[in-house]
Amino acid sequence: MKSSLAPGIRLITTFSRDAWYRSFILFLTFLFYTAYHLSRKPISIVKSQLHRNCSNVIHPADLNITNNETWCDWQPFDQDNYQTLFGVLDNSFLVAYAIGMFISGIFGERLPLRYYLSAGMLLSGLFTCLFGLGFYLNIHSLGYYAFIQVMNGLMQTTGWPAVVACVGNWFGKGKRGFIMGVWNSHTSVGNILGSLIAGAFVSSAWGMSFIVPGLIIASTGILCFFFLVEKPEDVNCTPPQHHSEQENGETEPLLNTASHVDRTSNGNGAITTEIPQIVEDHSEAISFCGALSIPGVVEFSLCLLFAKLVSYTFLYWLPLYISNVAHFEAKEAGDMSTLFDAGGIVGGIMAGLVSDYAGGRATTCCVMLLVAAPMLFLYNHIGQRSIGTTIGMLLLCGGLVNGPYALITTAVSADLGTHESLRGNSRALATVTAIIDGTGSIGAALGPLLAGVISPTGWNNVFYMLISADLLACLFLSRLVYKEAQGWCGRAPRARGFKEI
Question: Would you report the helix, strand and coil content of the chain in percent, each value rounded to 5?
Answer without folding.
Answer: 70, 0, 30
